[in-house]
Amino acid sequence: MDLKNRRIAVHIDDPELRYQLSELLMKNGAVVHGARDEVELQRRVDRLGVEVVVATVKPMRIGLN
């Protein structure tokens, strides 16, 4: 897949992983937009016409009470 000038929105909580993935995408010509939360991610998609979205979801923690 050619990433030249493709708009990609990224929302990953782990700062090191987010940085590494963003650098890799940008080296391949992508335009990377970071998002702090799901709301900002949705705004990026709506306003900028983002073509690809990369996001992580925290696993649910279930306590045994």
Which properties best describe this structure?
single chain; about 60 residues; alpha/beta; 3-stranded parallel β-sheet; 2 helices; 3 strands; about 20% strand
Please outline what is shown here.
The chain has 65 residues and is of the alpha/beta class.
Can you describe this structure?
By secondary structure, the protein is of the alpha/beta class. It has one domain (7-55). The chain contains 2 helices and 3 strands; from the N terminus they run βαβαβ. Strands 2-1-3 form a 3-stranded parallel beta sheet, sandwiched between helices. The longest helix has 13 residues, at 15-27. The radius of gyration is 14 Å and the shape is globular. The N and C termini lie far apart (48 Å). The mean pLDDT is 85.
